[in-house]
Amino acid sequence: MDELTQRYLDYLIIEKGLSGNSMASYSADLVQYITFLEKNSIYNLNNVDSAVILAWLIDLSKKGLSAKSRARHLITIRGLYKFLIAEKKITKSPVKNVDIPKIGLALPKIMTVQEVTILLDAPDIRKPRGMRNSAMMEIMYGAGLRVSELIVLRLQDINLDANFVRVMGKGSKERIIPIGSPARAATQKWIKKGRPFLLNKISSPYLFIARAGKPMTRQSFWKIIKKYALFTNISKNITPHTLRHSFATHLLEGGADLRSVQTMLGHSDISTTQIYTHISREYLTKMHQKYHPRNLLNV
Asked: Is there a catalytic annotation at residue 73?
């Protein structure tokens, strides 16, 4: 079984071009699945039927995994069996008739425009690290990047003359995203003044650097966001991804079309982007209730 699952992982890397983060998730899911089978004395993937799959999902639930996590695990295993059938290693998929656990609509947390403004104004841009942190947050909100995309940006990926940033997203798909003047100004200041000071004559290809010219880690950037949220007394539980969610929602609230937002976010399926329309509808409802003249009447 280990050999077959490894071939599947190789296929995802070579044929599908999955990123390192995605591969780590797939690998962890497969390890848990194979471990469950072996604990139940199943050592051949051909010996798995729908009952075993259901027992495995129940086991995941008992371990405290949410419906969303269980759904992800099942999607991973579906992909495995689909690959093995194509490779003629097995004859049928035991997952075919097993429904994905109902997740429900999990709306991402967002910030108001005012909260974003307060957060982005928090760094002390008189200091090199403040310049870096300001530029990172401005780029993340200005272009709607994933944190994994932000921290690996290289100097060559940003064009301050044409006001765009080039990003290598999930599945090694490249996209070009425009940035506004605040992000441009903050990044320009960081490159000219802050970055050379922190590099201290060390060479690095990365746009945003930490110690010794190394790229910022996701954990470090998360701590930076938390620090500024605490400093500005923003009570919401803010993460780096909150800026990406806010970017998408604020664009839609401002009148941007869904396809354009999908392209900028790098979503392969528009259904992923559509979740932000639910947030926008809530916003529009509130605005209607607050400002429509008929709602203002004391009836």
From this structure: no
Looking at the structure, tell me whether residues 246 and 120 fall in a common domain: yes
Active site residue 250: no
| 245 carries an active-site annotation | no
Same domain, residue pair 136 and 199:
yes
**Residues 166 and 253 grouped into a single domain:** yes
The 3 state secondary structure assigned to the chain is CHHHHHHHHHHHHHCCCCCHHHHHHHHHHHHHHHHHHHHCCCCCHHHCCHHHHHHHHHHHHHCCCCHHHHHHHHHHHHHHHHHHHHCCCCCCCCCCCCCCCCCCCCCCCCCCHHHHHHHHCCCCCCCHHHHHHHHHHHHHHHHCCCHHHHCCCEHHHEECCCCEEEEECHHHCEEEEECCHHHHHHHHHHHHHHHHHHHCCCCCCECCECHHHCECCHHHHHHHHHHHHHHCCCCCCCCHHHHHHHHHHHHHHCCCCHHHHHHHHCCCCHHHHCHHHHHHHHHHHHHHHHHCCCCCCCC
Write down the catalytic residue from 70, 73, 132, 244.
244
- Mean local confidence (pLDDT), 3-13: 82
Band of pLDDT at residue 283, cut at 50, 70 and 90: low
Q: Are residue 79 and residue 164 in the same domain, yes or no?
A: no
Query: Choosing from 146, 184, 245, 250, which is the catalytic residue?
Result: 146
Catalytic residue among 170, 189, 218, 226: 170
> What global pTM score does this model have?
0.63
- Domain, as residue range, for 222: 113-289
Regarding whether 164 and 81 lie in a shared domain, the answer is no
pLDDT reading at 85 higher than 50 = yes
